[in-house]
């Protein structure tokens, strides 16, 4: 009998399930065949026989007795896959044999004893065997035994209640041991254990308390996670996801679960960042001190002495704007990966520091704030304007002073260092750049791509919004690239999108480009939104600096979509209640929708009309 | 089918015939008529050589391991690809894996099959089980130019050559060894569904997510990445034990596709 013949037979029985048991009986005699391939096929077939819905349950139960002698030989097979499948079959047959003994007593005692002996030999492999597939099969067998032994009856002629309960309890403790064990973590074993334990907790509520307590006692910080620098953050991410998904069905019953999950998630994120930082700091690139900023002007010739001190004292503001741009573009094109990253990190760090300082300044209450009425403060909040906190040199920023809304704290921080003289020179220099950039668009494109891949979005969007001439070709191309980078993955890049659009809004006097970009973003995002994205979408609408009537009316389509209408109506309600500048447009739209039969907006229309 | 087994052939010199047996053999050769001493000695050597049953005998750290070949793994392991609508990403991966000889099926985790319609807010919605052929004919009749331009007709034409209709994950009762989802949401659905089924069939399954964007270009690239992953799995002598290593190597080379992994049970 060859595997090809058996495959043919299998196809026949799949077409005619009544012949499944006939094929099983024909296969059993060749199960101990020396050919490994044949044994593997037989093991796979028998395992599938007990899983297929095509065969009647009574036939499966009757076949158990015939299968045990075969399993006896397979438990110590040299081929690990055969052993794994044998344990899987055992996990399938044991509850059937148990139920037979439970119902009919002595008639099936021998079969039951045989299955218990097989269980014992299989479970010995749990700790002794190195094969992960066998361990995983043993974990499942242990769960099945625990589950089966929950069904007991006092004074049964064959089943010893005390012994079976003790066995079940011991196996459950062994399963749960992984959550207290400090040995190196094997993710597949952890995943298998969590899944079987949660299934056990859901089906047996009286065991749920014990299982959940043990799982919540799992302290990842005490466990050594082995593996490469890539594997470790990966495993941490998987663990976070595993617990999130597995504990979800129990979260309503146990209020401590959400808190535990939040803690676990925070730990996994921190560890991933820490490991990444360690990895980056351990690389052998030379460090350049970028903390010490130059105080006084330095000659241009310092550039040619690329030692640390001279580079640190170089004063870039002395360069002409066009020259600085040419140097920056050609430099960015050729700079090495590590060096570029290091410099970008330094700039990002400086921006964050500035933001922190600004935030501290803003936190201190001024006498003006104290003297203001609470109603005024509420009015400010409702109009979504940032309270005025002009920097000392705000008078030297002609392009910002015209805007009716003040830039965010982040936007402030970046400008403060620049002296008034350079700002005055900015106008003509930018015009010059408009002439230069289209000619060297290809080179610029290359540089921008490099920056986009490595620099923080905050920095790139700032450069694009303020560093390039208004309406220049380079600017349009850059915005398109940023759009393509951020919008398709809008769920994870959500903060970056807000940052980018805010930059565009605050950098330009002409808002046409801003509205065009917002319109495109909303058009692109709307069809992809699912009900779960409701919060994200509302946050996007609330954090955008300005929304016009056209954008508000884009919500109409989603409100009429029966599956996702809830997102649209929630967003409109939110805008009406918390974003007064666009309240009128939203109310108009809401009225139209109510007329069209969207009843969920009726209450908000009545209230604010 | 070819199979490689690490064979350990003991060195005969290490099992020399002891002196007292040699003496007996010499006596025997003198007494018996035909057989010379050398032939008796070689027979004795063969009878004395015991097969290496314990690893200590040959100073081996581990007993000889059976190495399985990729072709055998390809026959043994059942793959499954899953996306939201069982149209684009899962079907492209299905096609690529099938063409390379894998045992593969594909499913969708959504409640309905959604295809791009004439506008963003008017998708073409079908129930799972509607034949690809029927969808193809209907859309062709509605607006051939539009659906050819957005690639839907081309995609449906490919799909109807692979299988009859889109299938829903929640309703399927097959067993797989490796399930590859193309979106984190589908990964969550598959894992939650397996958990809700109660793991009654006791069969372990590796559920892996490879995040692929839902467009034709990315689906084609993603399918090639999935094929690479599947090849790495079948090339492994023990895919169960090496799954984490395989995935971390995959992640290193395909940073564009963030992965997720769980070991669940059917």
TrEMBL record, chain A:
Location in the cell:
Nucleus
Asked if the Swiss-Prot or TrEMBL record annotates the protein with the keyword Nucleus, the reply is: yes
* GO terms of biological process kind: mRNA processing
List all Low complexity biased stretches. Answer: 392-404
Domain of life of the native organism = Eukaryota
- Asked whether the UniProt record includes Nucleus among its keywords, one would answer yes
Tell me, in one coarse class, where this protein mainly resides. nucleus
Record-linked Pfam families: SYMPK_PTA1_N
- Compositionally biased tracts (Basic and acidic residues): 366-379
Tell me which residues make up the Symplekin/Pta1 N-terminal domain.
Answer: 80-261
Name the keywords, alphabetized: mRNA processing, Nucleus
Q: Where is this region: Disordered?
A: 357-429
- Residue ranges spanning the membrane: these are none
Q: Which InterPro entries match?
A: ARM-like (IPR011989), Symplekin/Pta1 (IPR021850), Symplekin/Pta1_N (IPR032460)
Name under which the protein is recorded: RNA-processing protein
Q: Which organism is it from?
A: Starmerella bacillaris
The root-end lineage is: Eukaryota, Fungi, Dikarya, Ascomycota, Saccharomycotina
From TrEMBL, chain B:
Main localisation: nucleus
GO CC aspect terms: mRNA cleavage and polyadenylation specificity factor complex
- Catalytic reaction(s) noted: O-phospho-L-seryl-[protein] + H2O = L-seryl-[protein] + phosphate; O-phospho-L-threonyl-[protein] + H2O = L-threonyl-[protein] + phosphate
Where is this chain's protein located in or outside the cell? Nucleus
UniProt-listed InterPro entries: RNA_pol_II_suA
| One Pfam family from the record | Ssu72
GO BP terms: mRNA 3'-end processing
Q: Does the keyword Hydrolase apply?
A: yes
EC number(s) for this protein? 3.1.3.16
Entry's Gene Ontology molecular function annotations: RNA polymerase II CTD heptapeptide repeat phosphatase activity
The record's similarity note reads:
Belongs to the SSU72 phosphatase family.
What does the function comment of this entry state? Component of the cleavage and polyadenylation factor (CPF) complex, which plays a key role in polyadenylation-dependent pre-mRNA 3'-end formation and cooperates with cleavage factors including the CFIA complex and NAB4/CFIB. SSU72 is required for 3'-end formation of snoRNAs.
Tell me which PANTHER family the record gives.
Answer: RNA POLYMERASE II SUBUNIT A C-TERMINAL DOMAIN PHOSPHATASE
Q: How does it assemble?
A: Component of the cleavage and polyadenylation factor (CPF) complex.
Q: What is this protein called?
A: RNA polymerase II subunit A C-terminal domain phosphatase SSU72
């Amino acid at each position: 009998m060859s595997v090809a013949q058996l495959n043919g037979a299998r196809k026949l029985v799949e077409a005619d399930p009544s012949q499944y048991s006939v094929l099983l009986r024909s296969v059993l005699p060749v199960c101990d065949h020396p050919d490994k391939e044949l044994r593997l096929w037989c093991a796979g077939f028998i395992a599938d026989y007990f899983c297929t819905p095509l065969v009647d349950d009574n036939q499966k139960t009757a076949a158990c007795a015939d299968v045990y002698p075969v399993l006896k030989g397979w438990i110590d097979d040299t081929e690990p896959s055969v052993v794994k499948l044998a344990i899987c079959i055992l996990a399938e047959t044991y509850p059937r044999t148990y139920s037979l003994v439970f119902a009919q007593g002595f008639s099936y005692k021998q079969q039951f004893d045989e299955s218990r002996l097989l269980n014992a030999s299989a479970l010995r492999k749990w700790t002794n065997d190195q094969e992960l597939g066998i361990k995983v099969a043993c974990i499942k067998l242990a769960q099945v035994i625990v589950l089966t032994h929950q069904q007991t009856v006092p004074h049964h002629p064959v089943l010893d209640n005390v012994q079976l309960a003790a066995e079940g309890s011991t196996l459950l403790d062994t399963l749960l041991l992984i959550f207290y064990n400090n040995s190196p973590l094997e993710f597949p074993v952890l995943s298998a254990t969590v899944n079987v334990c949660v299934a056990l907790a859901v089906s047996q509520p009286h065991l749920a308390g014990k299982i959940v307590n043990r799982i919540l006692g799992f302290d990842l910080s005490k466990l050594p996670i082995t593996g490469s620098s890539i594997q470790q953050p990966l495993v941490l991410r998987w663990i976070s996801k595993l617990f999130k998904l597995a504990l979800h069905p129990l979260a309503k019953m146990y209020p401590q679960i959400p808190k535990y999950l939040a803690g676990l998630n925070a730990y996994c994120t921190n560890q991933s960042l820490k490991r990444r930082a360690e990895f980056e700091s351990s690389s052998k690139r030379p460090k350049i001190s970028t903390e010490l900023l130059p105080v006084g002007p330095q000659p241009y010739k310092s550039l040619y002495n690329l030692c640390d001190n001279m580079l640190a004292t170089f004063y870039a503001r002395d360069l002409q704007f066009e020259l600085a741009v040419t140097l920056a573009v050609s430099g960015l094109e050729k700079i090495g990966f590590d060096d570029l990253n290091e410099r970008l990190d330094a700039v990002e760090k400086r921006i964050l520091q500035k933001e922190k300082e600004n935030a501290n300044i803003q936190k201190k209450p001024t006498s003006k704030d104290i003297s203001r009425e609470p109603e005024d403060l509420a009015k400010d909040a409702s109009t979504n304007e940032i309270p005025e906190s002009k920097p000392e040199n705000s008078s030297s920023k002609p392009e910002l002073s015209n805007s009716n809304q003040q830039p965010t704290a982040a936007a402030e921080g970046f400008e403060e260092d620049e002296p008034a003289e350079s700002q005055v020179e900015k106008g003509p220099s930018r015009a010059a750049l408009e002439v230069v950039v289209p000619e060297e668009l290809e080179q610029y494109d290359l540089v921008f791509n490099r920056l986009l891949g490595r620099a923080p979005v905050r920095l790139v969007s700032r450069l694009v919004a303020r560093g390039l001439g208004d309406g220049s070709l380079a600017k349009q191309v850059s915005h398109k690239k940023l759009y393509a980078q951020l919008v398709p993955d809008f769920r994870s890049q959500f903060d970056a999108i807000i940052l980018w659009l805010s930059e565009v809004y605050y950098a330009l006097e002409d808002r046409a480009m801003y509205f065009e970009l917002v319109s495109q973003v909303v058009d692109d995002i709307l069809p992809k939104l699912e009900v779960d994205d409701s919060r994200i979408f509302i946050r996007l609408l609330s954090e955008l600096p300005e929304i016009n009537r056209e954008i508000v009316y884009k919500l109409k389509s989603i409100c009429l979509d029966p599956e996702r209408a809830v997102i649209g109506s929630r967003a409109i309600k939110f805008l009406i209640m918390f974003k007064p500048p666009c309240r009128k447009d939203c109310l108009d739209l809401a009225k139209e929708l109510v007329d069209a039969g969207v009843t969920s907006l009726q209450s908000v229309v009545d209230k604010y009309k | 089918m070819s199979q490689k087994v690490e064979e350990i052939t003991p060195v005969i010199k290490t099992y020399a015939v002891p002196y007292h047996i040699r003496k007996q053999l010499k006596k025997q050769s003198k007494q018996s008529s035909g057989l010379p001493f050398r032939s008796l000695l070689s027979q004795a050597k063969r009878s004395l050589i015991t097969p290496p049953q314990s690893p200590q005998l040959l100073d081996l750290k581990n007993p000889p391991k059976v190495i399985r070949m990729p072709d055998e793994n390809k026959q043994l392991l059942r793959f499954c690809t899953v996306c939201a609508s069982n149209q684009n990403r899962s079907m492209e991966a299905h096609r690529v894996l099938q063409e390379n000889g894998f045992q593969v099926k594909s499913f969708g985790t959504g409640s309905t099959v959604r295809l791009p319609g004439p506008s963003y807010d008017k998708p073409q919605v079908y129930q799972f089980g509607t034949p690809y052929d029927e969808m193809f004919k209907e859309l062709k009749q509605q607006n051939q130019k539009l659906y050819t331009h957005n690639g839907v007709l081309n995609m449906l034409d490919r799909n109807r050559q692979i299988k009859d209709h889109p299938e829903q994950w929640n309703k399927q009762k097959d067993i797989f060894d490796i399930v590859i989802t193309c979106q984190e949401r589908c990964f969550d659905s598959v894992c939650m569904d397996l958990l809700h089924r109660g793991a009654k069939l006791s069969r372990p399954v590796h559920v892996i997510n490879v995040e692929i964007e839902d467009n034709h270009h990315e689906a084609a690239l993603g399918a090639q990445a999935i094929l690479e992953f599947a090849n790495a799995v079948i090339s492994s002598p023990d895919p169960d034990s090496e799954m984490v290593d395989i995935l971390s190597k995959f992640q290193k080379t395909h940073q564009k596709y963030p992965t997720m992994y769980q070991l669940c049970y059917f």
